Amino acid sequence: MDRLLKNKNAARCSEKSISYAKKFKLAAVKRYNEDGLPASEVFREAGFDLHLIGKDTPKDCLRCWRRAYAAKGEGELLIETRGRGKGGGRPKTKNITEAEKIERLAAEVAYLKAENDFLAKLRAKRTE
Question: What is the DSSP string of 40-54?
């Protein structure tokens, strides 16, 4: 980990993963696309030891970065996208106002009532 952190192209690293510098991601995609260099060579030129990070890591990273670059442009590589869901996840229940709490509970009650009605209709069809 210490060797990886000394590399200017590694932003963070843990025992399980490496986060690469945003500028490196963009430069790597451009080198791969424009110069036709293999992914392993792009990483080797950037100072990464392929025995240390894994021989498949460069190919896998570049595949992901190229897909993001093709879909949304270079801005997608310059911002952190991990943890940004599509609005999903658990609803926040801490630090909400009483009105928000009441609104959330009212929506939950309406959902449960609709679910009970649906189940009652199913039971009624079974007995017919």
Answer: HHHHHHTT--HHHH-
